[in-house]
Amino acid sequence: MRILVLTHSFNSLTQRLFDALVADGHDLSVEFDIADSVTEEAVALFQPDLLLAPFLKRAIPESVWSRLPCLIVHPGIVGDRGPSALDWAIQRGEAEWGATVLQAEAEMDAGPVWASRVFPMRAAPKASLYRNEVTDAALAAVREAIARFDEWRAGRWQPQRPQPDDPAVRGTLQPLMRQADRAIDWAGDDTATILARIRAADGFPGVADALFGQPCHLFDAHPAAFEPGATPGQLIARRDGAVLRATRDGAVWIGHVKRPGGVKLPASVAFAAEAAGLPDRPAPLMRDAADWGELRYREEGAVGMLSFDFYNGAMATDQCRRLIDAIAFARTRPTRVLVLEGGADFWSNGIHLNRIEAGGSAADESWANINAIDDVCLAILQLSDRLTVAALRGNAGAGGCFLALAADHVWAREGVILNPHYKNMGNLYGSEYWTYLLPGRVGDAAARAIMAERLPLGATRAARTGLIDAAFGADRPAFEAEVLARARALAEAPDYPAQLAARQARRAADEAVKPLSAYRDEELARMHRNFYGFDPSYHGARYHFVMKSPQSWTPRHLARHRDRAGASPAKR
After folding, report:
1. C-alpha to C-alpha distances, 3 to 50, 330, 381, nearest whole angstrom
2. Cα 81–87–88 angle (5° rounding)?
3. Which stretches of 171-237 are DSSP H helices?
4. Over 60: is that where the pLDDT of 472 sits?
5. DSSP per residue over 47-99, as a string?
């Protein structure tokens, strides 16, 4: 089927649908929702059978939906309407939520339903639920809706409009959630209420509040133990960029904030001078999972498990340094396999663009950051005394993809999306030893194609291409259980010594042909021009990415209908 994807941005849900529907054999092109005239032009150029809108912030023009079937993906249960669907579900503590595919009409989110799915809610931030449960449900519902298309076109099936008096329809019209609805009463609200409010605003817009007597928006909250003697609202300590704030029955770590006119940053970075007065309370590397911290190491027999749960997968210079120390610690442990788990929602997305943007010199901080993440990659490549596994529980992008390839084995959850390329960030060349790692897995021609196409790649397709070794696990718990089972099998394999020796021999042979230092020097020479050269493309692209500037055009690698030849992807 010929499908035009109309979206506000190429976000995680849109990328997952794009990858899956292309894999299903459909002919897709993408247009960003910039103006009605642009949408009308895209429809005229591509001549789609169907318009799919997974992420919009305004209505599709009548000139389009009145002439072409347009399906909207709404992150809510049947009958739910309004722009804050998931926010209200989290803040109200809904036990179950869903995703609905409905047909566009004059009234937003009020059209007949083509398909829907429900899922149990998890105590998690909005962005995490959206990226996982909502996306899984939306993909299943979209596939069901597409499967019904021919029957609908032939008049043998019709979508049903939700009836308000139907007891099965629980959803209702909900207003835009405003900051007054999100406000925290630090003296009166309990920890669960505070966590729910910050989680419901995570990603965007955050909860309007104040730290150190100064206004800011709060994001990224984690529960902490009760602090005897602390006054509710009192700031107590700092850790891993977060600040600890007391509640009436416990405490919460507030990981990130956004000050007026600024960008989202770790709380103790955004308020550097003020937070310096708080006592530093580092998290032990080996600790109980309930005690929050960005880095955690644990052991399961002969298997070491190292997680690095950096917010949004971004790895700043100081975070890279701490991760290198954690890898060095893991190396002292008597294990045979080290599993690098990354974060729950993102394995890694490479260098920390927000920290770079907020730094005194963006070029200098970029240079320090890329060297630091290269050092992480080198630390993994030089772990010669044990086998290593990159276990991608969540998505990975740019340098984070190639960081994963430094491991001996790369496994990913089935729903994970990879973006193994850099050029979307202002023609950034990239480092992380990608010129060694990527061709070594897929060959020179495929490596050039992956970097040039700049398209998302689902884990299942990535495994078929050889980019990664395996994709499995329908959800995160299933994936984590299978990772542990496979890692134990590696550690206990009778031929473990032979596998380790073969790994060491391959690395030595590669080093003799061309040292790792040569790959790094060549990559960094190109990166130095990106950071310090006359072409400002990287700095401009980074600024617009960090500031969430509105899209002004759709990149040609997505808007295939705008190719000068006018050919669709299937005909090119």
Report:
1. 5, 48, 42
2. 65
3. 179-182, 191-200
4. yes
5. --SEEEEEE-SSPPPHHHHTTS-EEEEESS-TT-BSTTHHHHHHHTT-SEEEE
Q: What is the mean pLDDT of residues 225-250?
A: 97
Six-digit token string for 41: 């032009």
Helices and strands in the chain: count of H runs, count of E runs: 22, 22
Q: How far apart are CA 189 and CA 186, in angstroms?
A: 6
Single-letter code of the amino acid located at 144: E
The residue with tokens 């194609």 is: 449
- From the list 299, 438, 413, 426, the residue with the least C-alpha distance to 345 is 413
- Could you give the CA distance from residue 276 to residue 237 in angstroms, rounded to a whole number? 9
The pTM of this model reads 0.95
User: Does 98 score more than 50 pLDDT?
Assistant: yes
Q: Which of 332, 336, 315, 518 is nearest to 402 (CA)?
A: 315
Rounded Cα–Cα distance for residues 8 and 372 (Å): 34
pLDDT, position 108: 81
Preceding amide of 205 cis, omega within 30: yes
Report yes or no: 3 and 50 within 8 Å, Cβ to Cβ: yes
Per residue in 403-446, pLDDT tens? 999 999 999 999 999 999 999 999 999 999 999 999 999 999 99
Burial of 505 (0-12, 13-18, 19+ CB in 10 A): exposed
Q: Chain-centre distance of CA 222, in angstroms?
A: 18
CA–CA dist 64, 104 (Å, integer): 10
Q: Which amino acid is at 306?
A: L
